[in-house]
Automatic annotation (TrEMBL):
One of its GO terms (cellular component) is extracellular region. It is found in: Secreted. Residues 1-183 form the Peptidase M12A domain. Residues 223-344 form the CUB domain. SUPFAM superfamilies: Metalloproteases ('zincins'), catalytic domain, Spermadhesin, CUB domain. GO terms for molecular function: metalloendopeptidase activity; zinc ion binding. Keywords: Disulfide bond, EGF-like domain, Glycoprotein, Hydrolase, Metal-binding, Metalloprotease, Protease, Secreted, Signal, Zinc. Its cofactor is Zn(2+). It comes from Ancylostoma ceylanicum. The active site is at E77. This is Zinc metalloproteinase.
Amino acid sequence: MSPIYAAVRSVFKKGAREWEKDTCINFHEDRSGTIAAKDKIRVFVQSGCWSFVGKIGGSQDLSLGRGCESIGTAAHEIGHALGLYHTMSRHDRDKYITVNLNNVKADWLDQFTKQTPETNENYGITYDYGSIMHYGGTSASFNKKPTMVPFDTVHQETLGSPFVSFYDLLVLNNHYNCFDKCKKDPRAARCENGGVPHPRDCSKCLCPGGYSGRLCNERPSGCGDVLKATKEYTELSKTIGNPNMKEKEDFEICYYWIESPPNTQIEVMIDTINGNFAVDGCKYFGVEIKSQKDQKATGYRFCAYEDAEVTLLSSSNRVPIMIYSREGQTDVKLQYRYGDVHFE
């Protein structure tokens, strides 16, 4: 097997796993051509990264060409095959983003076509800037100017995420009726922090990013810590990787919780971010700060030198933070403190 085909097979399987582990959808590899299923996805290497949207019947193609060999790209194309349109094509997008079609390459305009309520069912789930199905803010631009600007402009770098988001999972779980069994299960978990009973085990929870444990009331295990804010600035400094770390398929991730006393508000200020590739969606490295009220949504992502001194105020007395990288050395320094109501 050639290196390119081996890489595509690896990232496709990992991309499929990103959907499979948190839905009721199962993928079965048919290497020998002996599986009798009538409807299949044929993964191959052609020019570009593309897939049909939803099942078209029979064997349908999904291309992961050169430059598409990442788990995020594979998960994006698999999302299409499972029925997801681009997030910026949602019928309600105009409530959340401004699409600058004047900056879009002519042969890419169809990727920004807005759907209708009849063609685009979102099951009441809100727009997520960090959806795996969302293009980056300058994607398909012919003049390097933004093709999309979120109404919440601090989310500009969040557009184009390399991760399947919690809201992505909710949409597909609803689409395939994965939650139905948990609605009838007396053992269904009573989840916290926006979590929902897990479609593969109703007694535990499917958790939003930054949360873990059976009831979504724990910090994800591994690298990271629970930090207690004071009224004076404290520094959070973290280095992931090293200058010689080549691009990897999987991210190294550290999860932190910054907490403060009840009825207080946390301020988080970016001191410095240093890494190799500051691109739309922070696809190679970055920091996500979940200071927003809706903890089910993706937090604010940052990965550029210019983000220094960006300051966020929390909507509660806890702020989950994710620092991640899959290439080179990433250095992040944050300052945090709390106040009783608001900082001036």
